Amino acid sequence: DNKLPFLLFELQVVHYEIGLIVCAVLGLLFVILMPLVGCCFCMCRCCNHCGGEMHQRQKKNGPYLKKCFAISLLVICILISIGIIYGFVANHHLRTKIRRTQKLADSNLKDLRTFLNETPAKSPDKVSVLYTHVSEEMFSPASDIKLLLGDGIHTRLKPNVIPVLDDIKAMATAIKETKESLEKVNSSLEDLKSGSARLNTSLSNVKAELEDALNDPMCSEQMVTATCNDIRQSLGQLDININLDQLPPVHDQLNSVNQVLKTNLTDLVERGYKSFNDIPEMVQNQTKNIVSDVKRVLDSVGSNISNVTNQVPIQDTLSNFMGYINDTETSINHGLLTLEKYESYRWLGCLAVCCLLTLIVIFYYLGLLCGTCGYSKNATPTSRGCVSNTGGIFLMAGVGISFLFCWILMIIVALTFFIGGNVEKLVCEPYENRKLFQILDTPYLLNEEWQYYLSGLIFQKPDINLTFEKVYSDCKENKGIYTSLQLENRFNVSERLNIQEYTQDINNEFEHMNINLDNIVLLDDAGKQNLKDFGAVGLDQMNYTTYLVEVSKSLTKVNLVSFADKLVATANPLPPGNLKTSLNVQAQNIKRIHQQEVIPLEQSMSTLNQSIRALQRTSNGLMEKVSEIILSLDSAQAFIRYNISSVIIEESKAYVNTIIGYFEHYIQWVKDSITDKIAACKPVATALDSAVDVFLCSYIVDPLNLFWFGIGKATVFLLPALIFAVKLAKYYRRMDSEDVYDDLCVEFVSMKNMKNGNNGYHKDHLYGIQNPVMTSSPSQG
């Protein structure tokens, strides 16, 4: 099962190599056959065969064939030109990339040297310094025992304590408000009693004055008698409507409240608040030694971390690779010098190949251009112009060069194809999809005695599952060398930084912690007695109904203003005299009494009404409220006394867990720093990518594959190009003999030039009249 990827890769390689071999065989056939065919073709044409005879047989579809041959050759030449362009571009691209290789190698080697030399030496100290900084910042809130432990205890007790203290504080406020209400009641009663006496006197005086005025002789007159009698009967309404003597005084209640207020209940409650709110401060004062001891334990971790980080075998492991880096650098520099030396020869050779193909295709383009431009429909094959004949010569020149050199071009194409194709399929693509690493990780492949080559090389333990693919992936993600190379097999950081050892020390420190909160007093005995005394003042025994009924009455039996207005209205119809004047004067006196005496008394009655209602609200269930407050107070005090120990224990455990949680975070941070931060090996993966993916595949193989593709494409198309060029040349070159036709009959004229010793050439004309159909010429067209 472990060798399955290798077997699958072997099968793929076999299939691919079969395809390469088939292509190579085809190229070999091309190399062998093209020179042979060219030699035969040349010899055949020298013997006036294969189109070598300068005679063109005229056909009806001749113009059509000429166009087809010309268009086909033009299309093929365009395709060849594209291939040549690919060749030029690939050649230039390869030269440019090779010139950049030295800079690429220097950059990667510099990164690798920095990685090997500086990172391992500085990383342990860096971890220690960072741990000291981070531990100070993170332990600062953890060391605030007042906040974590003290506030925790305070918060646990708060629901049982604060509501009771709030009720006592509200009761202290109610006592003060009760005193104010009693004082207002007492003052209002005194004001009402004295004011009502004055009002009674004033109204009595007004009634006496009115009775004297009604004794006037004018009342004896018949028309006035009825008016006087009506006024005399209404005088009974000028009287007070309230009886304040039945309202009991509140001196006793006021004195009792004043006696209660001699004890400042508000101060006692504030002391209870302060005593309860001082719990965090008390906890902090009683645990100073604990905090310092815990800080000492955490500080000792820093030195242990320095020892552990210095013992991590990263430096030793990486030092083993320094020799490889030095040898690699020497090899690279020597190889690049050799590469640059021979690169110019390669470039010139590839340029010569591209220029040779360019020359061939230029001959074809010139042949097409001259032949097309110089061709005349009216000219017979023997009378074609010089330009057309030159076009045919250019085409034949291209054919000749193609036969001479195309087999050399195919050899170059086959070599570059075999090399570039194999490297692309066997190295570049497997490296890209990481199958190459899977092949290298095949057990016992690189070393028959080692299951895993990399672990055997580093640890001398070939049974450890350390693979090239895993190391490359980890370095690609910039993980530390500790994780990438699985250095825990040599030095296990988790065992050296065992958190249980340190947490046990912290637990031992807190086992000796002793917090005493027994002296918390919410309210002393004086405060309790004060509450009981207030409940016994007797506010609930007051007859509030009598007060409210009496103060809800009007001060007088009649509204004095209305009475005065009515009196004025009654007096106005009377004839002028003492009666009328007296009535008007008394009406004004009544209004004055209302303004000066009744209105102030009404305000006092309103104040009395509000004070009585406030006292009624306060006294409603007063004894029950006091009893409930005292009961809740005793319950809260008992809760503090009997449950404080369990609360302290629970909150102490929570605090210890918080400290240990911070500490676990510290230790985990250190482990992560050692395993993932120290000597992050991304430069190694980058260097490998630069060597394989960038230099070999991108700089060399990609341009090489583009070169053989372009040149191979152009070379393959030379074969149909020379065929069409030979066919087309017949239509452009000037012939030595031709077929002649007329409109009615077909005359076959065979003309041959025969060499004469004295007279040069002799033309022998043969004439024959046949049916008006085309006849075949005995000569080869």
From TrEMBL:
Source organism superkingdom: Eukaryota
GO biological process: what's one of them?
positive regulation of nephron tubule epithelial cell differentiation
Listed name of the protein: Prominin 1
Which residue ranges run through the membrane?
18-47, 68-89, 345-371, 392-419, 706-726
List the top taxonomic levels of the source: Eukaryota, Metazoa, Chordata, Craniata, Vertebrata
Q: What is its main location?
A: membrane
The answer to whether the entry has keyword Coiled coil is yes
Q: Which family does it belong to?
A: Belongs to the prominin family.
Question: Which Pfam families does this UniProt record tie to the protein?
Answer: Prominin
GO cellular component, alphabetical, reads:
apical plasma membrane; cell surface; endoplasmic reticulum; endoplasmic reticulum-Golgi intermediate compartment; extracellular exosome; microvillus membrane; photoreceptor outer segment membrane; prominosome
The annotated topology with respect to the bilayer is:
Multi-pass membrane protein
Q: Which UniProt keywords apply?
A: Coiled coil, Glycoprotein, Membrane, Transmembrane, Transmembrane helix
Annotated compartments? Cell projection, Microvillus membrane
Q: Which residues form a coiled coil?
A: 175-216
What would be an example GO MF term here? actinin binding
